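Supplementary notes for students who missed Thursday's class. We covered one full example, reproduced here. Read the sequence, then the structure, then the short commentary at the end.
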Amino acid sequence: MEIPQLGFSIFIFFLLFSLVSSLNSDGLSLLALKTAITKDPHHTLSTWKETDTSPCKWVGISCSADRVTGISLPNKSFTGYIPSVLGSLDFLQHLSLSHNNFSNTIPSRLFNASFLLSLDLSGNSLSGSVPIEIKTLKTLTHLDLSDNALNGTLPLFLSELSSLAGTLNLSYNRFSGEIPESFGNFPVSVSLDVQHNNLSGRIPQIGSLLNQGPTAFAGNPNLCGFPLQTPCPELQNQNPTNPKTLQNPSNPSNVDDPLPKGRERGMSVPILFGVVFIVGTVFVSAWFVRKKWKAGEGKMVKGKSESEGEGQKGEFFVVDEGFRVELEELLRASAYVVGKSCNGIVYKVVVGRGVSVAVRRLSEGSGFWKFKDFGSEVEALARIRHPNLVRIQAYYYATDEKLLVSDFISNGTLHSALYGGSSNSPSHLPWATRLKIAQGSARGLAYLHEYSPRKYVHGNIKSSKILLDDDFEAYISGFGLTRLIAGTNKSSTQLGSGIGSNKIPALSSANYLAPEGRVSGNKLTQKCDVYSFGIVLLEILTGRSPDFHEMGLESFVRKAFQQERPLSEIVDPSLLHEVHAKKQVLAAFHVALGCTEKDPEVRPRMRTVSESLDRIGCH
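Structure (token representation):
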């Protein structure tokens, strides 16, 4: 009898409303979920009403042909349980209830929704074992059950999920026992994560398990064997004879492909600012807004403007109290053109005491800003402070001239470091440096995303927007420029809609844009930033530009992994001699492929991406 599985109250609810409500069957199933939720502190489900005829306009619900195809309700602070009746949603493809407080077991009848493509129940309080019925989901590509209280052994039947191609995340649970050898049958494109459980025994040296990095198995003290640094007791005194299953990842013979011996030392990238775009030395006095400062003698102001003419005479504002450069110093300083784009011209300005700053002269589109709105926008940008974000120090406003003064980052862009500036020869960045750049960039972008509940979006992430200092620390630049150049102000668009842009940059490279971002009229989201960062990470790993292949870099790499081609055909050739880094490189590829999933619901958040990259560096 199935009434106990549904819960008696849910059964009565479903029966009564099926008699009196005009809502379709999918809507009734969703109302059962609403009833199963005992706490909804943000009143997220207040729009879910039984008087509606269709649920397709409800918060968190997506439909096709008036049938529910997606439920996306992450981070809603719900408390309750997951009702079995959700399995009656015949056309459901995506289900995300992550980071709530759902408890009890996962209902077996949930998997009657046989067309599921992605299932994310991570970050809840679910307990018990994984129901065997999940193996019937033959189209499932993404499964995330991490950060719950699931127990028992790792289910053998998960290897029957023949379509898995993205993520299988079982981390941060209470699974025990050994890792099944059948998990080696997953395609190499699957990013497996079983870290922080109670697993034990030797990691099977078979199939795709050999391609997982150590991060996937961390936090299981009783696990041993490659790729972990913990040798299995019975193998400590044995010398493996098969180089393909060698236990020491630092031994060059552990790589299938022949690699050149030796390792380059003293890698460096030339300082490229002032080389690629330099057009000569000019003086600021003969350069920008001299005609306005000469007449109006723009003043440097901390805090509120002292201008009586709404910026017509020009005002110079300092937004960082630590910024000690005076306006007169800028007027006397030498300036070099170091960059030019649709957003304007960037100058390196060398002021007294050898201090360098970057001054961006915004392009003509910025002229539509009102004085107060422009100041509010820039000051909001300036409040976003992180070691991996370029800081805005000051700005200048006049009706027909606007400037941003920011940190000058001395060693050029990631794009120049990878491709050698004006030449096409790669500059042979070692793996440790590449990983450092990826980690720093991810931290900066994750902070931008998490800084405010307004969900700020950069909107134009690419390798030329990542700047490097002399120590190869990464700094993300350019956030907020699209809005400033577009000239939109608070009278038309709220800042809370997202610093950076929620609109597609007109001249942004299509190869960095997420598929949904290429659709006219669609707004850019944080998941679009995640996709763009994934493309940048693939550039770091392959040394190839996003448009190097007719199918695009992401499709090229994904197809290569699906075909299980040798790593030597995918990775930057200059990294092949760094055999010790093979497992870290593979782990980074899995992160990049997760970021570039076609479905934005499947992509991780930037905070998760950043944490994954940081863990790679710990092993």
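Commentary. The longest strand covers residues 334-341. Confidence is low (pLDDT under 50) at residues 1-20, 235-309, 421-426, 488-508. If anything here is unclear, bring it to office hours.
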